[in-house]
Amino acid sequence: MKKGFLLFVLIIGLTSSKPDYNSAQYDLATAIEKGVISYEFTGNSSSPHYFQPINIKLENLTEKEIQVRIPIGQTFASKTKDHQDIITTQEEMIVLLPNETTKNSIFGMCIQQSVAAPNDEANYFLGDMASGDLLDLAGEIQKRSAFNTLGQYSVWTLTDDTALNAISGFDLEEATHFKTYVANLLGVPVPEYNPEDLYLTESEPIHITRTVGGKFRYKFYKTSNVTIGMFDDQDIIVRELYANAQTKPGEHFLEYEFDTEIYPDDVYYIRLIINGEIKINMEMKPRRS
């Protein structure tokens, strides 16, 4: 009798643990329109604007599990003109239990280079879906997991008409891919390789007139994607100073350098970014004669 009872309890337990395959599914815009969720979209100061710049807080207002899809190419519009709008660069599916509230950081990139990057004080509303070249580029960024400066520079060539040669960085092969991809989208020739491109690394034969630099000391406990970025006073990436997507465990001294004649602002922020999260933020005021 006890064995039969235990078997009955076990069956009930297994049955109750099954996922709800009949949960309702919505894309984000539909979920908002139907009123099945409450929501809040804010900037994410702990991430650079080209990685996970948006935090999304969702509350399930129903008594049933729901799934909310955030499609690639969805835009989020700033409620003020002070911060950049965002386009998502990876599709997300958020599962919400009945009456559950969750907060997620969403992959995306800025689509207005001339204004400040999102921060914790920035608030957003749901914008339109991207289309055409911009949507295609967002898909390519997702396909190659290019949640980095190369992806961001590529987006700005479409949204802000920046030069194709600005799509440059430490990974020359990946930079060449995106430069070619965007040129094909625009129907223009791929620009020739320019060794004096201001975005190239110091390992290239760039002419340096006056440099400043420094180093970070950091201990890694697992293989990590590490970059050092140079940002302006609006938290916009100006230049990638170091990048290694496969930094091995152990203690590392990471050096950086830039030319003060090329970057004339009074203040910059040098940031150590590990797996998309800003770990160290250092203000630098280049001395000039």
Summary of the model, kept short:
The protein is of the alpha+beta class and 289 residues long. It has helices at 2-16, 28-34, 132-144, 149-159, 172-186; strands spanning 24-27, 37-43, 54-60, 66-70, 74-78, 86-88, 92-96, 101-106, 108-110, 123-129, 211-220, 224-231, 237-247, 250-259, 268-274, 277-284.
What layout of secondary structure does this protein have?
Elements lengths: L1 H15 L7 E4 H7 L2 E7 L10 E7 L5 E5 L3 E5 L7 E3 L3 E5 L4 E6 L1 E3 L12 E7 L2 H13 L4 H11 L12 H15 L24 E10 L3 E8 L5 E11 L2 E10 L8 E7 L2 E8 L5
Parallel strand pairs: 1-4
Antiparallel strand pairs: 2-3, 2-10, 3-8, 4-7, 5-6, 5-10, 6-9, 11-14, 12-13, 12-15, 15-16
Helix pairs in contact: 3-4, 4-5
Structure, explained:
The chain has 289 residues and is an alpha+beta fold. It folds into two domains: 22-150, no CATH class; 208-289, Immunoglobulin-like. It is 21% helix and 37% strand. It has helices spanning 2-16, 28-34, 132-144, 149-159, 172-186; strands spanning 24-27, 37-43, 54-60, 66-70, 74-78, 86-88, 92-96, 101-106, 108-110, 123-129, 211-220, 224-231, 237-247, 250-259, 268-274, 277-284. The strands form four sheets. It has a seven-stranded antiparallel β-sheet. The chain has a four-stranded antiparallel β-sheet with strand order 13-12-15-16, with no helix packed on it. It has a three-stranded mixed β-sheet with strand order 1-4-7. It is globular. The N and C termini lie far apart (92 Å).
